[in-house]
């Protein structure tokens, strides 16, 4: 049996009123008597009446919904960011439609087309690792769709942006490894085109320079799919281990890269931290329960999601087009555990 939502017509029929009278009563119109309003509102509560969102969107020319595009919902960073987004959307009366690109440019384009065709009021996006052509975003933006970038930002679009201080986070992680006694520190990163990769590599290189160590491109590996494919990470780490002068530590620049490096070292019986120090960006809640506990750079993902949603809704509800845009950069937190402490086990 097909589900049919309760409508104004149902209320009107049950109470013996016209649909226009019920509609005005629900809108608290002065034209309707208090007694009639009370009867309509009471009956509407009894039958759990909710206004039709499609009809409302046609009337208000707004859908009260926002779209979100992330690489992977199962990623701990993005799941925490989505929680932050929804916390703001809920209090502001917006619904959230979540899509994932799975690090695919093609899927990202399709997601944006889907969301815009559903008349969302605006979009939050963290671009995929395959995306180096932003035409699909700039076209929608030029046509008036409000967009806010978070985490992996697009510099070419004049919009609000929310990110973490990737340079400082990477600098702190690399400096910690050096202070712990590691000297040949490899860098395992996402795709080169991503803003987070460029910024985290800049922090990594600055830390090496400030501590008198040279940058060696032979111990830098890029993973286009950001750790979503274990075999890609294994190939990257194997490439590092086959170097004539093997690294003694790895700095991994994202969540799944970090945990998949640990997974590979365990499989190959490479001891952490005795044989290989490890530190990485990760928001996984269980990193302290790994053996050994994993040192990480933790991002304020929930706060990033909240802030991105606040900025987007501000643009949506602004009576005038915004011309001044903010780039909010939040601090990361270095959590030092056994995986990066040389000779501690």
TrEMBL record:
Domain HTH lacI-type per the UniProt entry, residue ranges: 6-60
Alphabetical list of PANTHER family matching this protein: HTH-TYPE TRANSCRIPTIONAL REGULATOR GALS (PTHR30146:SF109), LACI-RELATED TRANSCRIPTIONAL REPRESSOR (PTHR30146)
Keyword Transcription: yes
Originating species: Dinghuibacter silviterrae
Name of the protein described by the UniProt record: LacI family transcriptional regulator
Coiled coil location: none
UniProt GO molecular function: DNA-binding transcription factor activity; transcription cis-regulatory region binding
InterPro entries in the record: HTH_LacI, LacI/GalR-like_sensor, Lambda_DNA-bd_dom_sf, Peripla_BP_I
UniProtKB keywords: DNA-binding, Transcription, Transcription regulation
The keyword Metal-binding is assigned to this record: no
Pfam families xrefs: LacI (PF00356), Peripla_BP_3 (PF13377)
